[in-house]
Design brief:
Helix content of chain A: over 70%
Radius of gyration of chain B: 23 Å
Structural class of chain B: mainly alpha
Strand order of the largest sheet of chain A: 1-2
Oligomer: heterodimer
Order of helices and strands of chain A: HEEHHHHHHHHHHHH
Largest sheet of chain B: none
Structural class of chain A: mainly alpha
CATH class of the largest domain in chain B: Mainly Alpha
Shape of chain A: globular
Number of helices of chain B: 13
Number of helices of chain A: 13
Helix content of chain B: over 70%
Strand content of chain B: under 5%
Chain lengths: 288, 276
């Protein structure tokens, strides 16, 4: 039904978006690749020539690399477990009949709209401050020694902050999926006397599996690149230097652009591995 | 799967959900409350919850000391500008993909999405260098452009899913009547697409408002938006909980209110239609 004329018009209408995104993707990417093969120190001599794969080798053999991978995986893994686990429970609860459902939903979703620098600073000072923080008061109330959250249990602290930010997202998406659950099937199982746990295991969880996968993939992509939360709390000290933060330090703080760029290429590869799985699911949904 | 339940069960559900909801919301509530305290009350031991002398002085101090309005204005310009330009570029693209699909439409959509997966830190230096050489560092223009590019894939994608819901029969009917492409867009599609476009803009405004990688790394004094303004509080100076709270409240209030209206779009916009 589309005429030749409307086809060529369509192509023109798509052109600006496609060209811009192509440029946005290719220009910086090619530059990063270019720098990654150079010894490039803007403040200490500038471009010192080609060095082959030296930067790539130095980046992974530096003593900071493996701890940064470990920190990254710990944060991503910890936040995923907490947000998906609590998200499922919360979604099931919010789906139940209750008074004031709309308001509770808003309360639960609110943290998602708080900008990362605010949530990190509020948690850091007003909750996790070892002297005046609310958690310190709570600990003292129970007669315990207050914890120095961001230095003694830095990783746990970051995971708590980031989980608080992402729990709303997981809950909201899982709630959307729960709401499309087949009521009759659930009722039939209930009448047959299937216990709560087995109903959850055999009916609810399989129904949610796709939404859970999507939550995991999307959150992983965002969590791999969290930055502000670390920037305003620990600045990467106390074992919280993630891959993203390490690259940031190499590039902007120590101005070792070649080395940082090689790190950037690793980060891009890592993100792409996750992205491939996400795209496959999204693509399948496009056909349907 | 809402069903009829006994009042007792409903009461238990309500109590549990409200307790958890308030617990999750508590850090925000506490920040808002603290912003109305004096610095001394803010760190009182034991903490005071509601019964204190409410004061507005923190808001005054924050405004006087750091010129809050300028940061606010930068945030509005950057988030608003990037959203507006993004939508202007994305509407034609999404329109053509939704109504004149070709064999490659799906690939183009997925490719656009994949650009969103590129980790920002991977291209930090190139962007930094481009910004320096073009004089864009610490300018609102530069940030409008960056955030527009960051969100363009999401904007195209959301608009596409909204446009897809407009029934094709209407278009065919008006083509039969001999309406040209221009009439078709102006009189048929635009009215039907406005709710979708509005929701898309809302969500993207929020995403741009809260973006905190590029806004922290590419601004200094001139173009810094609220994200950077708040980050300047990360080095404490004496008593500052109440001032930090006031600044935080001012930074998040506009978006919290907007967020209220965008709950539904959140799912669509951030899962790319993968969860319905």
């Amino acid at each position: 039904m589309a005429t030749q004329q409307s086809r060529s018009a369509a192509r023109w209408m798509m052109a600006p978006a496609v060209v811009l995104l192509l440029g946005w993707m290719l220009v910086p990417l090619v530059m990063t690749l270019y720098f990654s093969f150079k010894q490039y120190l803007p403040l200490r001599g500038g471009d010192l020539g080609w060095v082959g794969f030296d930067n790539y080798i130095r980046f992974v053999t530096s003593s900071a690399f493996w701890p940064s991978i470990q920190a990254t995986l710990l944060i991503v893994g910890g936040v995923l477990v907490i947000t998906v686990g609590l998200g499922i429970l919360l979604a099931l609860l919010l789906d139940q009949p209750m008074w004031g459902q709309g308001i509770v939903r808003i309360l639960v979703i609110a943290p998602f709209f708080v900008m990362p620098t605010v949530s990190a600073l509020v948690w850091k000072n007003m909750f996790m401050d070892p002297v005046n923080g609310l958690l310190a008061h709570l600990w003292k109330f129970f007669g315990a020694q207050p914890i120095e959250w961001l230095s003694q249990v830095s990783m746990t602290s970051i995971i708590i902050i980031v989980s608080w930010q992402w729990l709303p997202f997981a809950t909201l998406i899982l709630l959307t999926a729960v709401q499309s659950l087949d009521t009759e099937q659930m009722e039939a199982a209930e009448m047959d006397g299937a216990p709560l746990l087995s109903r959850f295991w055999h009916l609810v969880l399989p129904h949610l599996s796709r939404a859970i996968t999507v939550v995991i993939l999307i959150q992983t992509i965002f969590l791999l690149s969290i930055f502000a939360e670390i920037f305003v709390t620990t600045q990467g000290s106390f074992g919280t230097r993630t891959l993203t933060y390490l690259i940031f330090q190499r590039v902007l703080e120590s101005q070792n652009v070649g080395l940082g760029s090689a790190g950037g290429v690793y980060a891009i590869i890592l993100a792409n591995i996750v992205a491939i799985f996400l795209m496959r699911i999204v693509g399948k949904n496009l056909d349907a | 799967m809402a069903r009829a339940v006994t009042p007792k069960k409903k009461a238990i559900n309500t109590a549990a959900a409200w307790a958890i909801g308030l617990l999750i919301f508590f850090p925000i509530l506490w920040t808002i409350l603290t912003s109305f305290k004096t610095e001394a009350t803010a760190i009182a031991d034991p903490p005071v919850f509601l019964f204190f002398d409410w004061t507005l002085e923190n808001y005054q101090v924050v405004q006087d000391r750091s010129d809050y309005m300028r940061f606010l204005w930068n945030s509005v310009i950057i988030a608003g500008g990037s959203t507006l330009i993004g939508v202007m570029i994305a509407v034609p693209a999404a329109w053509s993909m939704a109504f004149v699909p070709s064999k490659r439409t799906k690939d183009i959509l997925l490719w656009m999405l994949s650009t969103k997966m590129l980790p920002a830190v991977g291209v930090l230096y190139p962007i930094y260098l481009i910004f320096i050489s073009m004089g864009l560092l610490d300018t609102r223009t530069g940030l409008v452009f960056i955030l527009m590019m960051m969100n363009l894939p999401i904007i195209v994608w959301m608009l596409y899913t909204y446009f897809k819901e407009i029934p094709g029969e209407i278009l065919e009917a008006c083509r039969m009547d001999g309406a040209g492409l221009k009439e078709e867009i102006l009189h048929i599609l635009t009215p039907m697409a406005i709710p979708g476009i509005a929701s898309t803009m809302l969500l993207n405004f929020i995403l741009a408002w809260n973006e905190a990688f590029w806004t922290l790394n590419l601004t200094a004094a001139q173009a810094a938006p609220l994200t950077a303004f708040i980050a300047s509080y990360s080095s404490p100076e004496g008593l500052f909980f109440a001032k930090l709270s006031a600044a935080s409240t001012m930074a998040i209030a506009p978006v919290l209110i907007l967020g209220w209206f965008s709950q539904k779009q959140l799912v669509r916009g951030l899962t790319f239609g993968a969860v319905k």
